[in-house]
Amino acid sequence: MGLLGLWLALALALPCLTTAQTTRGINVLFVSDESNPVAEKALDVALNYVRRTASTGIQFDSFQRVIANTSDARTLLEALCEKYDNSLKTEKPPDLVLDFTQTGVTSETVKSFTHALALPTVSASYGQEDDLRQWRFLADDQMKYLVQVSPPADMIPEVIRSIVLAWNISNAGILFDDSFVMDHKYKSLLQNVPTRHLIAAVEDVRNVKRQLTRLRELDIVNFFVLGRLATLKNVLDAANANKYFGRKFAWFAITQDKGQLKCSASNATILFLKPEPDPTSRERLEKLRTDFSLTTEPEIASAFYFDLALRSFLSIKQMMDKGQWKKLNYVSCEEYQEDKPMVRRDLELRRALREVQEPPSYAPMMLEEHNGHSYMEASMRLEKVTVVNGQSVSAEVEGSWKLGLDSPLSVKDASSIANLTAASVYRIVTVLQKPFVMETRDKSGAVKYEGYCIDLLDEIRKIIVFEYEIYVAPDNKFGNMDEKGQWDGMIKELMEKRADIGLGSLAVMAERENVIDFTVPYYDLVGISILMKKPETPTSLFKFLTVLEREVWLCILAAYFFTSFLMWVFDRWSPYSYQNNREKYKDDEEKREFNLKECLWFCMTSLTPQGGGEAPKNLSGRLVAATWWLFGFIIIASYTANLAAFLTVSRLDTPVESLDDLSKQYKIQYAPYNGSAAMTYFQRMADIETRFYEIWKDMSLNDSLSEVERAKLAVWDYPVGDKYTKMWQAMLDAKMPNNLEEAVARVRLSEGTSEGFAYLGDATDIRYLSLTNCDLQMVGEEFSRKPYAIAVQQGSPLKDQFNNAILQLLNKRKLEKLKERWWSTNPEIKKCDKQDDQQDGISIQNIGGVFIVIFVGIGLACVTLAFEYYWYKYKRNPRVTDLAGQRGGKAPRQQHLAVIGRGASDDLSATAKLDAAALGALGQAYNYRRNGNQLPGVNQAWQH
User: Fold this and answer.
1) Which residues cross the membrane (predicted)?
2) 512 marked ligand binding residue
């Protein structure tokens, strides 16, 4: 049993021994750029490490190098094929192609070469998956042996994206030197980030100040500098000379070097990022530095290339040892046929790289399934460096960042470095439009802006902390697209990233949403309306006199005097009148003697509802009175009816009340101003009608249709209509105003509502104009209604932030208060007189003359009263003297009575208000009675 067991053990050990004896060395083809000496020196250290470290078990049968020193792809390809074909002739084809080219033609040439010949390759080229054009569309089997790992200099710039997103930076100037390759970063570094940025190589020391000045002229205040420590010092010194330090500026210095940041700034605080090795790898890194001379700077790059080369060698060695390395079929460059591409099956080079257990010398390798996502997961230390008078006073560690795509920034205390970043300043483009945005000047003459939108912006700032710089669009337009698809106004400023926010009464439109983003609406639906001059109804205080012509008034006056005179004549000569037949009417209560004064009064009062009073007693006088009553009734009725009609006619002059009314008339010209949204609306509506007409015409004239189908399309009238086509032509004929001010001026020049000019524009403009101008009015209902919203760049994160803020303001009813302030309680709003329309009564301007007549009548009455008082006191009332004193005895009794009789007849209020006629009769009766005479009718008065 012992001999048998020994034989079996020998038999089992023999295959292993045979395998160990037949294990061959590795064949490697190394390719690199002449401009990448760090990679070549790191490879030499790796080879030295393999030779001196027997535990790796790595041997090389063939190691060939190709150092590219040209940008000519053909020359490089010929050099690669020469080395490759020679290896095939010597039966030592490459098991591994180690590609340390960086980018550009050399990198793409090597990738094309390895892809075509299906050579297992580990590449350290720059770029993400889409940047590797020759390896962009690899099959799953090809992804297993064509492996790319991004070097640290390719991943470090990604910290800029993390910083911009973390602190919401709106602009960035990115400068770099030749220690970084940024060709592929121009489009991808800040892709889909709403940050205006510029990426440029650092110019030489003499021109860097001018370069910074150009960036500042582009309103860039956040500067990122990537490069060696010497490059950082040059740029920061130039910034200090330009006085680009302070609260308005932010500086980020990023390097691959180890060491302290130095510059000659007088007073500056800079955020400095530099790499640091993983704590678990520091001992190994120090050993490599001292024992194997891994001292090439930058250290992180040397360690990366060393680790990647060693890990690649070990992966091939392990696959061979485990029997996973299959014999590869090779084809020479001359025998390669493009239509028969070579593909290796189940060559798991990527998995073998992940399974290597060799400890990292700087940081762990992150190897993903797809190219462009594998890298060294090193850390960058974030320091806050304070420089005073050219000396670094302090360098406080504030956080860290790990290399990676979209890797977050880790900060110890965000508030401690919040003030180190430039304030979030957004550039806002606007259009001047009352009352949304208005330009004013303060006491110092500086330009300021106010209005509804400015108040809205200030309310949003209470929720989202930021600062802003506002400017008016160069053409003061909201933005329209021309026939070539080019935009102008605010939209162009946002598209070209010269502005971050578009603020104003900007309507949400489908074509605008294709190129920019809108927030939720902050203003209700607003349409197009009509602005016209308010009709001026002519007024007159004596308008009631204009109802009848002057000749009619003269005839009425003549009839009045003639009738009054005729009535006086008839009453005087008729034997049946009161004054000629007093005895007959002595018991009648109506005793009126129609003298000339009474006749005038009777005819005047007969024209009023009060009536003329007591009528004449004689028949002839009554016929005259009846005739005058009939005449007065007709005149008064005619006057009343015509007065009402006369005051109503002027108020019925409303020729235009809607857009349809405007389109059906030809006396009033109408148009929006050139380049406005209203102009675009009418132009497009006209174009749509034209297209519909062409479609209908083509259908009706289509010869391929049958007679029945063609007959169904044959109509006398066009079925759709051409309303907007005619209106658009009328607008072109009217010559559109260039701006709102010109349009309003043309409206004001209109002679009335039935002729002149009508402006069509945004209802908000027209409503505000009608509120602040008493001579303008808004006509008709709104049409083509759209909401107003704030515009941002496409893909901007500001959209979500502003949406949240506006919704909060809506819930708090803040927007309603803003509307009330600028539309209801705005001090610019004028209190205009009410228009004399059909709903209101007759204005005082038209009926005020009646009051003047009253005042004139009262004035004349007062003057008459004064005249009567004067006449009675000084002209008709003689003084009573003592006649007895003059004659030396008593005055005769009859003289006293005569005086009393005359005084009583003149003044009705004297002697206890007795009737003047009765008092006169009393005096006469006394004289007659004293003389013994009898006078008819006197005895009764005397007895009374």
Assistant:
1) 551-570, 626-649, 847-871
2) yes
